[in-house]
Amino acid sequence: MQLVFADHPIPSVVTKSIFLAGPSPRDKDVIDWRHEALSCLCSSPINYDGTVFIPIPEQRFYGKDHNPSTWTYDNQISWECECRHIADLIIFWIPRHIDGRMPGFTTNVEFGEDLHSDDFELYAIELRNTSPLLKLTHNEAFEIGLQLSIDGRHILFQTFNVNSNKEKFNNTQYGLYSLNLMNGQITRLGEKFRGSIIRYALKPDSGVYILGQLGTEASLNVLELVWYHRAPLVASEGWLVLEPNYRRSTGYGDEFLNEIRYRPLSRLGKDILCGVDQLIKDGIVDPQRLAVGGIVMVIF
To answer: Which H helix or E strand runs over 144?
Structure first.
């Protein structure tokens, strides 16, 4: 197995390769997950003998201070882009628990530029013979949240669109669909609902509960907090977290959302600033005790 780090030149000949993407721990005391991934790849029954691209300088990967004169992040961006295009497989790690710690992680948003929603479809394979894969969907969207219906005759799934090679599927909201395994017909559920379907749950009679917008009783005595980064963590502590209504929200239909496509910063920033001005004007907030948090791209 050949390891190629971010401060290494890309080999001129690569027969097969894997790119170990993010996230990367920022805390030096946190062991990079890629060490365990490499151990799995080189062990039986995998015994991988190809190239592995690791988007970290070699010295940093092994817990040492790297020489900045031989590496710059600007160079790494182009290095990563080229390696991702070469790689046969890109692997991400999703932490399911932190063991009581909350280390910082970094990952890169440019990976989304490589994702095309028409590359992701549902397939079926007959396990009792060696028949080829049967393509079930042609949605040009990401299929997520798959569930088999109670009667075993339908597969329910949600879709969202990021970027289509063919640019035919422009539905950017989370939709809910049912795939009939008997005849292959796909039906959109809740098609008159203009918002984004976040979750759904099956009913025993093979119907579907659609969980869209969330409401709460006015009489409930709960703490309130306007949405910000790490809001899900705060919500787990019993707070009611409210998402501000600005042009990065996704619950007002495709036309609304399409207005901000390719302008993710300018309209978002104007809406937030106008909203803050209005809160001050209406006397809801004290301008001397005001903080805005959670904007990942801090440019305002």
So the answer is: strand 142-148
